[in-house]
Design brief:
Elements (H helix, E strand, L loop, with lengths): L8 H15 L3 E6 L3 E3 L4 E8 L5 E8 L2 E6 L7 E3 L16 E4 L8 E9 L6 E11 L7 E3 L4 E2 L4 E11 L4 E6 L2 E2 L5 E3 L3 E2 L6 E10 L9 E10 L3 E11 L30 H9 L4 E6 L8 E6 L4
Parallel strand pairs: 2-9, 11-19
Antiparallel strand pairs: 1-3, 3-7, 4-5, 4-8, 5-6, 8-9, 10-12, 12-17, 13-14, 13-18, 15-17, 16-17, 18-19, 20-21
Length: 309
């Protein structure tokens, strides 16, 4: 026997109302807040949203928990600014979707939030936040200290790169011949705080034993990069030359028997005339050379002996 299907009209109507309400609800609220802004520049804070048929009631901006800007299209004037220390709003560039802050200061670093509210009957409200840091850049490029201009294979190279006084401190990285230095070659030191300011200096040491492959055509190229977010990059570089003695073949013509000529280790100019004669006439001699290693903290001694003939 056929029976008519009973339809729950009340439930169906409720579902339709919910679907209709969802269809016109405020959604997709999103903010575009710069991660970092240079001190003294303007900051553009953007708040996008989709009303989906709803009517906009207000857009509010907060720094932390304190409201500093409100846009209410049904009111006159639609724009209201609430004074807050360090915050200056450019009225002519601000509206229902963006607010422009002028000449930002480091005290303005922190969380900024956009609150969007729909009008009756939904009164939906969504708030979205983002962080912004105001950066005080260093006044000069990073500096490299303690690294000499000439080294030999086997020498220990050790020096510091310093980025002076910024907020926040710069991130320092070393490269060797344009390639990132191994973490085993670097040591990051504790930040140095400014005495009369909140600025900080960063220091990273580079240390490694020089191998033959470090020299490319007799040169080793070092760079230290200082980065702060994506708004600052500077570097210092150092070109190091390979220091090697040039050894000449010994002849039998009776002329000067030095094995070293025109090198940092050649000290024959310190011999007087008498010693020069003895130097040529003796069957054997021992000569001691001391190199002044301007590129190292150690001294090296070389002994050259002419065998008896």
């Amino acid at each position: 026997m056929w029976h008519p299907r009973v339809v729950d009209l009340q439930s169906s109507i409720l579902c339709l109302l919910i679907a209709a309400e969802v269809g016109v609800a405020l959604r997709d609220v999103r903010v575009t807040i710069p991660v970092a802004v240079k001190k003294g520049d303007n900051a553009n804070l953007i708040c996008n949203y989709d009303m989906e048929g709803d009517i906009l009631y207000s857009v509010k901006w907060y720094k932390g928990r304190r409201e500093f800007y409100r846009y209410t299209p049904k009111e006159n004037p639609a724009m209201k600014i609430f004074p807050q220390p360090g915050i200056s709003v450019e009225r002519t560039l601000s509206n229902e979707s963006q607010v422009v802050l002028t000449a930002v200061d480091t005290t303005m670093s922190g969380k900024f939030s956009c609150e969007v509210s729909a009008d009756a009957p939904s009164f939906h409200t969504i708030i979205v936040s983002g962080d912004m840091e105001i950066v005080e850049l260093p006044e000069k490029r990073p500096s490299i200290m303690g690294i000499h201009s000439r080294y030999r294979v086997g020498d220990m190279l050790r020096g510091n790169c310093t980025s002076h006084f910024s907020k926040p401190a710069a991130n320092l990285t070393w490269t060797i011949n344009e390639l990132p230095a191994s973490p085993l070659y670097t040591t990051e030191y504790k930040l140095i705080k400014g005495v009369n300011s909140n600025l900080e200096s960063s220091v990273v040491e580079l240390h490694f034993t020089i191998a033959p492959n470090h020299f490319l055509r007799g040169k080793l190229k070092l760079k230290c990069f200082a980065d702060i977010h994506d708004i600052y990059r500077a570097y210092a570089d150092k070109i190091i030359e390979q220091e090697t003695p040039r050894i000449l073949a010994t002849g039998t013509s009776g002329h000067n028997a030095n094995l070293f000529q025109n090198t940092p280790y050649d000290s024959s100019s310190n011999l007087d005339e008498g010693n020069r004669e003895n130097h040529h006439e003796s069957d054997g001699f021992v000569k001691r050379y001391q190199a002044d290693l301007s590129s190292s903290s150690t001294s090296a001694f070389f002994k050259v002996t002419k065998a008896d003939t």
